[in-house]
């Protein structure tokens, strides 16, 4: 459920007509709904209410300061994967004790910044990383709290580019080696082993892969406790998918996911952490774009939009499907027409949809890409020297620009021409 609905024939973001925002900021732009962000966070928080837990928003899905502030005020922690994300979380007011640091390639500088600024735990992904973190912590005279990310060798049954839990993926240590690696960690004076971490992939549309992974985590918890490790926290990652294509079967709900966590791990008396990104921010955002031209090609018609692959790369990168709807609600029963929906970038890959049935559209009309709040703005670039597009946050009947569109001058002035040229 989201808060982007037609009212009186016009798409609204909560109580604000989308054309009103378009008139204020110009297309294309992203719009996020405060109520949807809050609602999705609460669904997870409620789903784990049976035990001690923390929902850490995977901010790589959407790291705008205002979005982080909405979620932090709702009680969310943050899952960060870089020094930049750590700095963003702190800048949005998230205390260090609610920030989890994930990622396969944390540098010593990033480790130091997080240890100095406060951190809930590092999710360590390899032995060399463990050695580095131990050294950095010792040099600061502190102990770094860690969970070790185990790779359970489970097929997440999702797109190959976002599956992370198979043994051939770069993530975590093989679960078969966990005993050995935990023993090494326990012997390092700069590390404080607090738990186990697992994250098997993104956009999962079934619970079964989670079940397989969590059963392995439960078993490992017993093994490690028997070895004398104090396993008091289980970080279960993110990954629950969202319904991009409304005609498909809906993925499991957070409440079903929470019940599965309870069933597989609830008896272990551990604090549960989860790191959802997409399910919190995905359907909390839309990308609004204007039609520049309708081009009648050889055997097919093209809708040429003012948004492009640099603004939303998911279709080009993951063959992702996004619902694209007209901002003016089509009359009931209006005849639909197949269009190839493309952007202006000079690449064939700049195609959002092929032969998509749409009501008749004309130059100047607005369309909205649904489910664009996650892995949208954060993955955008200025390819073709197209300035990053604005982000807008709606709350009830108010809206605010939460990232403005740079002018050409601002975009160009980030480059410098050396004095010797
Ligand atoms: C990407 C990622 C997440 C979030 O995944 P979603 O599919 O957006 O929920 C959580 N944890 C880690 C370690 C990740 O890399």
UniProtKB/TrEMBL annotation:
Q: Which residues form the active site?
A: 346 (proton donor)
The chain positions of domain Orn/DAP/Arg decarboxylase 2 N-terminal read: 35-281
Q: Mind listing the GO biological process terms from this record? A: lysine biosynthetic process via diaminopimelate
Q: Which residue positions does N6-(pyridoxal phosphate)lysine occur at?
A: 60
Residues annotated to bind substrate = 278, 314, 318, 347, 375
Tell me the cofactors it needs.
pyridoxal 5'-phosphate
Function statement: Specifically catalyzes the decarboxylation of meso-diaminopimelate (meso-DAP) to L-lysine.
Question: What does the subunit comment say?
Answer: Homodimer.
* Family note: Belongs to the Orn/Lys/Arg decarboxylase class-II family. LysA subfamily.
This chain belongs to the protein called: Diaminopimelate decarboxylase
State the organism named in the record: Pseudoruegeria aquimaris
Higher taxonomy: Bacteria, Pseudomonadati, Pseudomonadota, Alphaproteobacteria, Rhodobacterales
